[in-house]
Fold these 3 entries.
Entry 1:
Amino acid sequence: MFYYGQSDVGMHRKINEDSYWAENMWGQEATLLVVCDGMGGHKAGEVASRTAVETFCDMIISSPCLSYKIDDVKEELRRKISAAVKEANTKIYNLSKKYTEMSGMGTTLVAAIEYKGLLVVANIGDSRMYISTPAKTLQLSHDHSYVQHLIDSNIITKEEAKSYPRKNVITRAVGIGPQAEVDIFFSDLKTWGNGYLLLCSDGLSNYVSEKDISNTFNRASKIDPGPHGTADLEFAVHEFITAANNGGGADNITALTARYSI
């Protein structure tokens, strides 16, 4: 799988507290994509997101999937992801207790693993994962935020949520407590057909709609990937970050894209 990512400080922040990672792993049979958006005191959010990415990725990459039956694969990946999240949460939580300047720090986490056509999505917080094909674009993660709770409870609509005053309040994060609860979703890429993946922080999703994502990837699909295989992805990432900054750039912006084919 080809991938390309970039992180931008935005128009108003001095420190970039986002972190991301992408790597083909397990003998090139799988791809790991991760985005984290940190929060906390002076540079603490940066520490939290970096610690989460490093810890989560180290544990996943160093532990290849050994199962063969699809149900066993899903269960094994579920265990690996849960264990990696637990380890990242413990490290961040212990740092926040040890150092006063890091007290209360935490981070969102959204991760995708593609393994032999199976897509696994894990998320905590409001960083997002989208899948985009010529037919449709859909968010596969589910926000853990106060505004999403209001949407799920039919108190406000998605349209009203765009301007809701507490839209950035999240209800789950890695490292803010002794335990962290992660949501894990599975999808068969064969049912989607060829397309793109996007993982991003809310500094992007607050400014870019699913329609915008679809239009950008449709334009990108007409670009020759070039000798490195990523020209279309680089175009999409540049478009996403530019759109977020042009929209206000109030937060750090991270876009991590990947192109898959079945």
Entry 2:
Amino acid sequence: MIQRVMNVFRIPELRQRIILTVSLLAVYRIGFQVPIPGINTQTIADAADKQFGESSWNQLFGLFNTFSGGGLTQGALFSLGIMPYISASIIFSLLTKVVPALEKLSKDGSSGRKKISQYTRYATVPLCLVQGFFIVQGLFRSLVAGGQAQIVDPDLFNSFGWKVMAILALTTGTIFLMWLGEQITEHGIGNGISLLIMAGIISRLPAAVARYTSSAEEFSTKVTSGLILLVMFVAVIWIVVFITKGQRRIPIQAARFSRGRRTVGGQRHYLPLQVNQAGVMPVIFASSLLMIPGFLLGAIGLQGAAGVFNDYSSWWYVVFYGSMIYFFSYFWNTLMVQPTEIANNMKEHGSFIPGIRPGRRTAEYLERVLMRVTLAGATFLAFIAIVPQIFAGSLTVEWSISTFIGGTSILIVASVALDLVDKINSHLLMRNYEGFMRRGKGAR
């Protein structure tokens, strides 16, 4: 293993890419130490915990805080993080499938994809302004109104100029992070935006461990629950890696045809369908939209009914949460993976699935396989998503600690780490070095 790690730094180009990536990630973390003028960063995290408490709003707050690298609780220049760009990317991913002009543009090769990326950058700016406005007028105002006036000077907070300055500062920070991620993607190693999100998640781990070790529990109880958390952490990581790499490989046979005296074609390859085709998107959609019923019911005075959606430890909340994950898993896969289009492309290129007639029969077969694979992926996502609720209730640990055992955090970190290892492996194998990770028995 040590020899494989040494091989990574023996390739000059790969070594330079890794050093550049680490340097830019360090710049990313330094930006979280630069506060918005007028913000007291020493007390804003405690104020946020007291204000939101252990409720489903804390889960939604934690979701956005995950993508911002913990910046929402710091009042820093990078408080918005990369979330506006992620939102714009999701919007254009959906629009590409429903707007014919964008769908045609996406099929124009690299030039079309560059055009869509440019539109995504343009859309990020207004999203930054809107989200920055809600951060200043929503989060900061609620913290000041909640008796935490030391966070922001009330006279300064009520001035129009300070609000405009704060919103522009948050927008500038996000645009800089977007540029930073693109530089990592182009000149570094791995996907820059994903690495920024992963770095923000990992940076919260030491603080979560420190809060757990400083809790008021008895030492024996703390050690027992800590060992259980460690074992479950390793087990969940193994499950996430196993499912993330898992795929249903559909055999595809290329048709044979003659060119002069030669017979070409006839190769056999596979169409891989990922088990977790939707990634983390169903969990994000379910977490965000599940807050709406509780908010509306609370607004009209039905506090009892609203409590079902606001208490993430309740049985009904888990049922609704899991059901929405199943729904959005099928919704996302149906939208992004279109069996009819795949079948038509196979027919045009003279390929077919052995035993299945080309055209409509192939599309029906692919749709049937996709539905079954999606069921397995949705079950996996639902299990991973409710793991934090289970441990937060059974082991009485804080939500900030249990989120590292499951939920969006573990899914993002595992998938980004696997992608990073694959990128490093490709550089090593290109130069006739042994891969960074040992292959399993029987792997080809």
Entry 3:
Amino acid sequence: MVLLTGSGSRPGEDPQSAPTRKSGKKDLLDRYFKITERGSSYSREIRGGLVTFITMAYIVILNPLILGGFGPDSATLDVEGGWLEAAQVGAVTALTAGVMTIIFGIAANLPFGIAAGLGINSFLAVSVVGDVTWPEAMGLVVINGLLIVLLAVTGAREAIFNAVPPALKAAITVGIGLFIAFIGFVDSGFVQGTEGGPPVQLGDGGSITAVPTLVFLLGVILMGILVARKVTGGLLIGMVATTVIAVVVESILKLGPAFENPGGWHLNVPALPSSIFAVPDLSLVGEFSFGAFERIGALAATMLVFTLVFTNFFDAMGTMTGLAKSAGLADKKGNFPGLKAALIVEGAGAVAGGATSASSNTVFIDSASGIAEGARTGLASVVTGTLFLAAMFLTPLTAVVPLEAAAAALVVVGAMMVAQIKEINFKNFSIALPAFLTIITMPLTYSIANGIGIGFISWVLIRAASGKAHKIHWLMWLTAAGFVLYFARGPVSAALGT
């Protein structure tokens, strides 16, 4: 990674590509985005924005498969039912990412891309929908975003961030990574349930014989190699390559869907569409409601909102701090220019994601690829966002990608997130046990909320009993008490007659 500290050009770069090489005067665009001031140039910003888009573009394919792949009735193609139609989700995913990334670039002047966050979309699909409808789930996302914006405007977001121990922050990221990977294993048929035996087993009776599952494994290896070799857009390239292989396999073997053939594809049957271009179907925009509080009760709905806020909160803060450091824009304390605006716009991304049924939008760590290409300002984000808007017209491609290809990407992304485990001091058992419980509870209970709750409660109890009560922030006590109520919501609701 090249960190730029001056206004000189890179070796071999055209000196005229910088905004002010000849006259020494800055044009309006340069002054607004501080391109020269940050040692960048138009060519670097455009190139960085393009690379960030290439690296993030997989979300336009992956998000519809995650949001479309779960629910109580997968045969119901109804916004009120079990899953959302893939082309519609692809369109609103690209729309929301495009608009919010452009706004982020203009308002915060940082080279960060925003799109539907992995983790929250899986949480909605697996842990929320079924108890509530999709519009109600997206209404919870809107409330989550409004609260994040409020926290950012008042400055409380930074205070809360400082209250949670770094070890728990890292453990939550690791737990979500394992949860995402486990979802990928299940979706691909690599891991299956059993009757009368252990909870899960490898493949069918301990053997992997289904061709789609073999395609999944090939995808994991391929994407892993590309990411390990630091190939730009490795996930996207891997998903495309895996999909091409799946299309060829299906054209030869005619496997069909899994509900007709046990050895078939688990969601989309990979086949080329009649056209790759289409006018985007944006009918999901505005399809949200706040009926969850009536359907499942105020306490349960409030705890779901809390989980969304917490997940959004720490993921975004950690990601932005890391990206700012990579770009050479952060000071020793991790502060960087445009921090408040960045926090506000990121919260607005959650609101927009819920309002469009794209799921909560947040800053992507994948933006580091564009930063490595020289991006230092919001102009790169404007480029990235514009390309996302163009991607709206390619949504028919989302129906080609099988769930097995998306599942492979989930496993690789999960592996990336698990890398945060190095931030946890396992030599101190009062830290190790709460962190471990946070991590292990998420995949084993299929719930991010459960993992966070167990982590908070165990942290407060174990650390306090170990003589560390004075080091526990009062906000930790408060949220732990809230999670006790969350886990006891059944008996509490019964006692209250709700």
